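Weekly structure sync, notes
Attendees: PL, DS, HV (note-taker this week)

Item 1: V-type proton ATPase subunit F
DS walked through the input record. Source organism listed as Ambispora gerdemannii. Sequence as pasted into the shared doc:
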Amino acid sequence: MAIQQKDRNFLAVIGDEDSVTGLLLAGIGHVNSQQKKNFLVVDAKTPLSKIEETFLEFTKRKDIAIILINQHLADLIRPLVDDYDQAYPTVLEIPSKDHPYDPEKDSVLKRVQRIFGE
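Item 1 (cont.): predicted structure, written out as tokens:
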């Protein structure tokens, strides 16, 4: 059975504690039947390999429509983020309280600019 767009019901988030907490309070939190969460709280002790592993896991899940990732964390795994080119789940880089959004770094914006020849 093919996974349909309508089967993608969840947002996922990879972010700092404030970002993830805010989104969980907004109601995005979910734990599936395999006890897999749709969020990862990243702090100074989180190994880079865990961020990479979680990003790859989220991109392969068929129940996730959008992955939100703090831009400063996306910078840590920039090659993975830039190489990801699927429509679903869509990856959106978001600012955090301590790191403002920089459109020059956003992989989606870079792709749009290439398409329009900018």
